[in-house]
Predict the 3D structure of the following.
Amino acid sequence: MAIFLNEDSKIIVQGMTGAEGTKHTRRMLASGANVVGGVNARKAGQSADFSDVKDGLTLPVFGTVAEAMKETGADVSVLFVPPKFAKDAAIEAIDAGIPLAVVITEGIPVHDTAFFWAHACATGNTTRIIGPNCPGVISPGKSNAGIIPADITGPGRIGLVSKSGTLTYQMMYELSDIGFSTAVGIGGDPIIGTTHIDALAAFEADPQTEVIVMIGEIGGDAEERAAAYIAEHVTKPVVGYVAGFTAPEGKTMGHAGAIVSGSSGTAQAKKEALEAAGVKVGKTPSETAELARQIVAAKA
């Protein structure tokens, strides 16, 4: 088992023929992901050569997401689309009813994200959105949708949800000997689709996942809301880390959502909320990994 993505997932790439889309499609294919095509209205009917990954492999380019889904049975789209076109690309994926849209793009205007997220809600939430400004989702040994390196770790019993891409990679490396059911990078923008709570609920229901690692960062109240959800609904052990203890007040740090205003959104406040919900919180990523390791060892 895994969450959101498994060995049966069929992936299309919106923006596959661009530089970033091509590079990461190649990496997804090399990791064993079942990428079945791309979408680019200006290059519809053409094909893209990936024979350097697999002998003779070419992937069709479709004019629309709906056409790609009809022809390939795709149920996942990964968006490598420039920020000014990302809103329209996301809306196209939502209107086509694709079950999962992973929006990698960084720098999408917040009002554009708000628009396509509201559109997803208004049309019945048939499309789960991960991102934007995220590394994607990987179920090691099964599939990989996004830019997460596939060779850091293998399949295992830990579920990981993280705002930070680089901390996702570090945590996967620190616990690579145990392995992961799924790692989800939800992104650090002020408005995102899939939240900590969404991933926590999915990991709680996933039989493969025994321990959950949750990485947050300063800004907003997502971690406090996740803590309240954990206290009420999560029975599996959760280990947490909050990035940004040394961030100065009022300065945006890295992600657009990582800004502290007064006492709101501080790392300390988030840490206290999580600990009050029974979550063990590490002071560093390495300490957090060690806490998770201890829990896995105790369950063995």
